[in-house]
Amino acid sequence: MSEYKKKFVLDEERIPKAWYNIVADLPTPPSPPLNPATLQPAGPDDLAPIFPPSIIAQEVSAERYIEIPEEIHQIYRMWRPSPLIRATGLEKALDTPAKIFFKYEGVSPAGSHKSNTAVAQAYYNKLDGTTRLATETGAGQWGSALSMACQMFGLECMVYMVKVSYHQKPYRRSMMQLWGANVIPSPSDQTNAGRAVLAEDPESLGSLGIAISEAVEDAVTHPGSKYSLGSVTNHVLLHQTIIGEEALLQCQDADAYPDVIVGCVGGGSSFAGIAFPFLRENLAGKTNTRLLAVEPTACPTLTKGKFVYDFGDEAQSTPLFKMYSLGHDFMPAGIHAGGLRYHAMAPLISHAYDLGLMEAVAVPQTKVFAAAQLFAQTEGIVPAPESAHAILTTIDEALAAKEAGESRNILFNLTGHGFLDLGAYDAYLSGKLEDYDHPEEAIAASIARLPKVD
Amino acid sequence: MSEYKKKFVLDEERIPKAWYNIVADLPTPPSPPLNPATLQPAGPDDLAPIFPPSIIAQEVSAERYIEIPEEIHQIYRMWRPSPLIRATGLEKALDTPAKIFFKYEGVSPAGSHKSNTAVAQAYYNKLDGTTRLATETGAGQWGSALSMACQMFGLECMVYMVKVSYHQKPYRRSMMQLWGANVIPSPSDQTNAGRAVLAEDPESLGSLGIAISEAVEDAVTHPGSKYSLGSVTNHVLLHQTIIGEEALLQCQDADAYPDVIVGCVGGGSSFAGIAFPFLRENLAGKTNTRLLAVEPTACPTLTKGKFVYDFGDEAQSTPLFKMYSLGHDFMPAGIHAGGLRYHAMAPLISHAYDLGLMEAVAVPQTKVFAAAQLFAQTEGIVPAPESAHAILTTIDEALAAKEAGESRNILFNLTGHGFLDLGAYDAYLSGKLEDYDHPEEAIAASIARLPKVD
């Protein structure tokens, strides 16, 4: 075997000291969120019932860099810098001239990138006097990350977990409870939003949109409580840019600047996290890195949704956001990548996609699991089903490089490990997984129900 | 908060190039294994049916250092060097003047130290022409590590998994299958050894001793097959010394040479792995580090066993080893730390303990889980139940330092993560865990049944 360096790990002193805000550099500003009653731009006051002031300030900021407080930086150092790893085993199996690198966020406490924003949100809420946070979770990666962060800052944590995932991933529930959170399956009978869904469909599998409605309602009806969101909003994408800022330095250390960056998208925060610092370099005219988002065919927001104003949740309790959407009452199939079952896409990702600054592709879950198994067998890491979407497309890109006879540098975001998703692997290995290609008519119908704003 | 460095990670170039063999430095040589029929020292020929020649050479070697082949070193770099982490959160919670460090082996593919020897054993077997390996596993850490290693070297893998763990930890089974292994619960009807146990007790929970008997029988009755063991034997302890050799360098980098090293013991390999390089320094008169082994009260091999010749397995198919033992037909309670349910202790550990070179303590599982939860809440890592035994004793040591008003350096071995043990945490959190203090009479009875050799 030839000599190579397998891992690129920064010294703690080189962990970036600021998050990067893409808003400062976009060629046109993103459309503002709207108050659904007035259809006027939503201001900080519209967000005050659910978010604390310092989070709202970040949500509406146009500053290019926002300093990471030392208290957060110290907690980041529990798992950061996350390693950049060269996938030499996968390269060999594919016999590709491409160099494949992945940024491994599975080293965090809850096992995914979600800890990057969970710690920041818990910190700012604590600072602003919040005593309790309510949130939703899909596959449980976000809920467990926030549970741990709340534990560290002495906040109570209430988690509404999408019912299909609650039953598919019982270990995630135990993990949240270990960190002191209260976890219930959504839709639940704890909120008006949940009761309304159950009245219509007592067997509802739940969705992120419904769970968000429950968590928002919970937050505004409990004193001292705020709501915390694991993706989609600007401040969450901001916090995740620590991934890309580290990766930039590590790619320089590896002497392998990426030709293409691949990442999965559900709400879009991990993709923004790794991609936006590289998009900054593109926008400055220094580089021309392709940015490629991968979504499930069962929830094809970018590839089949529309760029419209829509609600962030099923019960229409959020402001209206301009984003790619399948409609806020879109109900995706119960695929195992629960974290990608969201009807819409982060406004900043949507805007960048609309401007042609990035690409998107949709892939089916059986191929995703086959790619995941190849990765586990060659790189030794069991990936989360969400992250495995990026692995499949990375393999396709590496094979395209082989076909073209070019040694391209491919960087993908391995957002989390799959140790708590082995039930899904069991279903795959025993031939029980199905693919879901959501019918065009169903998508058209849910989009037709959207509020007409434009 | 004060400034501190949280993680100590070596450059890949500083990963040690050799394993350390304590046999070269022990003040008296360990007693040889015996052929049970002749009671004469067992030679390489006695081991040839189950191990390949290059493993046997390591098993009987007295060389101080054995070079790590480059092929193994390259695979080690998938996860090595494992980080040395300062447990600042735990220190703060305990308000102790002690500095607590842990070596985190949970970063490996299968999530524990077991990968260190699995890769080495698969490599040497491949080199010597083996095409298939049979093994046993308790909690599944060893079985999954060997499955991954066999996958990487193109060997078939057959795993007999102790039945109580097979049902407690279904995700471990899926993980082994993902890496291509064949996994069956033990006792099984696949072997004479398994059928004999089932005939006597169809409801047998199994034990490591029984599963070893099945795997050994399987190996010797299938062409091209050899047996692979995850602990106890000299060559396994040898491979694990990469942990302690790295830790030595990292403790120097941290300017915190350990006053005491704490580790859990089942078969003893992870403890030997971290402790023996430091024991070398003690034996050379350079240091005086305390070495403290922690075992479960349900299987108190060092603290209540006898130092005698005994078989390594239930069916008496191995040579006789001089070791601390509870008797080869000792049946420990079904505690959740399945990896610690072994009736005996590695001969090299037993010899060192007998010589007074190390200490041992036994702890009950409910206290272990309470310590594990505190660690998860303060350090963000969910520990394996086995590893959590070391956490409990580390806490006791840190509180003793506080009582004494001394700033001691404590190093413990966090041998694995507990992501696949969350069912056990669920049992703990819902108050369903019990402690088992094995009755002295039962221990005395099983020891009385031992072969009389001395």
Salient structural properties:
homodimer; 454 residues; alpha/beta; Rossmann fold; seven-stranded mixed beta sheet; globular
Structure description:
Two copies of one chain form a homodimer. The first copy, chain A, is α/β, with parallel strands linked by helices and 454 residues long. Chain A has a domain at 3-15 and 69-111 and 234-448: 3-Layer(aba) Sandwich (Rossmann fold), CATH 3.40.50. Helices cover 41% and strands 16% of the residues of chain A. The first copy, chain A, has 18 helices and 15 strands. In chain A, the strands form four sheets. The first copy, chain A, has a seven-stranded mixed β-sheet, with helices on both faces. In chain A, strands 8-7-6-9 form a four-stranded parallel β-sheet, with helices on both faces. Chain A has a two-stranded antiparallel ribbon with strand order 2-3. In chain A, a hairpin with an 8-residue loop joins strand 12 and strand 13. The model of chain A has no long low-confidence stretch (mean pLDDT 94). The interface between A and B is large, with 46 and 45 residues.
